[in-house]
């Protein structure tokens, strides 16, 4: 396993990011909203935020790169991190990004891919040398995961890992999430937004018009769907609408707030996915460098 310290050092070097920012997803803004679960979610999961009562959420939309000064028009993967605040004072996080599939179970390969992706001339060579990773990476490119997005409200975001939901009787269902936008090209604002922070400006104007809503969908694991691997493709999985995230307003900077994909609550279990298990180690190193 690549030492988390080494991974963070290499990622920081690749982006040339100064210490006070996140190693990846360095540029982002915070927002306030609510999450309300559906009755179907309440049946599958006993966790408190799934009981159908609205709970507050803190959302951070971000550009995936490690450079906090990047102009928003630069093509990039975007992130949507969500912190669900439960009535008992606990919280649980989901971190989505616009790429529908993750290319590897090996953190070292993720670091090498991130480094290689910064050089467009040599990246095809990296793909030739890592044919297993090429499929998911190309799926990301063709699904427009890394483009010059018009708005943080328009793409779908994928938290990638599977989580085990326990119901009231303790029965476990493995699920994967998708945050599906309700915004469409047709309901874009008439203004256009330029400048290095145009995604933030667009969101401010959009929220002045009204809330921004995402549907939270679950893929439910069936035969042959492996919950313990980030690369496993759950073709044909049953889909269930689990609830809605409604974002209402921008928040002042919340840093040093931390989103951690292994922060779960009673009723939600972690899988043995090696990428999921590695992430808090790398995030811990990053948090140490930015706080
Ligand atoms: C081995 C794999 C990965 C590594 C080494 C890695 C590394 C990192 C690091 C170091 C940070 C900054 C943490 C901080 O300072 O708070 C970060 C943030 C983030 N990562 Fe990852 N990551 C990995 C996989 C993933 C995956 C699979 C996803 C999406 C499903 C993801 C989505 C995000 C998001 C959305 C953020 C920003 C969170 C925020 O807004 O605070 N990462 N990642």
Automatic annotation (TrEMBL):
Superkingdom field: Bacteria
Iron is among the record's keywords: yes
Domain Catalase core: 12-291
Keywords: Heme, Iron, Metal-binding, Oxidoreductase, Peroxidase
EC top class, as a word: oxidoreductase
Stored InterPro entries: Catalase, Catalase_core, Catalase_sf, Catalase_SrpA-type_pred
Record-listed E.C. numbers: 1.11.1.6
Record protein name field: Catalase
